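haha ok so turns out i had the wrong file open the whole time. this is the CORRECT one, sorry everyone. sequence first:
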Amino acid sequence: MTLKSTNAEITVHSIQKGGGESLMVDRCRLVEKDGKIFLFYEERPIDDLPGSSVRVRVEEDAVVVKRSGEVEARLEYAKGRATATNYRVPYGMIHVDIYTNDIRIERRERYLSVELDFYIDIGMEKSENLLKITVKEDTTDDIGGKGEDAAL
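then structure:
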C-alpha cells in the first residue's frame, strides 16, 4: 500500500452551459492511496444552502463526490453512464440523474486537473454542465493529515 498525503489549493469551476457559473478557491488535502486520488475540503455556504464536508475520489474512469453535513449526497460521474442519487438538503430530498459525457484527468508533478462534462436532471430542471477541478500541491509537504485516512 502506498500512501501520499499533502496540502494543496483547490479550484472548483462549475459552468452551466447556456446559464451561470461559479468559482470556488480554497485549501484541500490531497491523498493518493493505491492508485486512487482523494481530495478533502470544506465547502462554504452558497446562497441558502449550508456548507458541507466534501470528499472527491478520482479513479481512471470515474469520479465520486460525497458531501456530508446538512447537505448530503453521493454523486457518481462515470463516462458514458447514467447514475442517480438523492440529494438531502435542509428542506427535503431531491432526486438527481446524471449522465456523464466525458471525464478528462491530467496528473503531473504537484498538479491535478479533472474535467467532467455531464448532463444533470433535477426534476423539471435539466442542464448541460462542465465541472473543472484543479489542484496545485503545496511546495512544503505536510505529511500526516487530519484523520482523512479513516474516510478512505
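The beta strands are 3-16, 21-33, 36-43, 52-58, 62-69, 73-78, 82-89, 92-108, 111-122, 125-137.
again sry for the mixup
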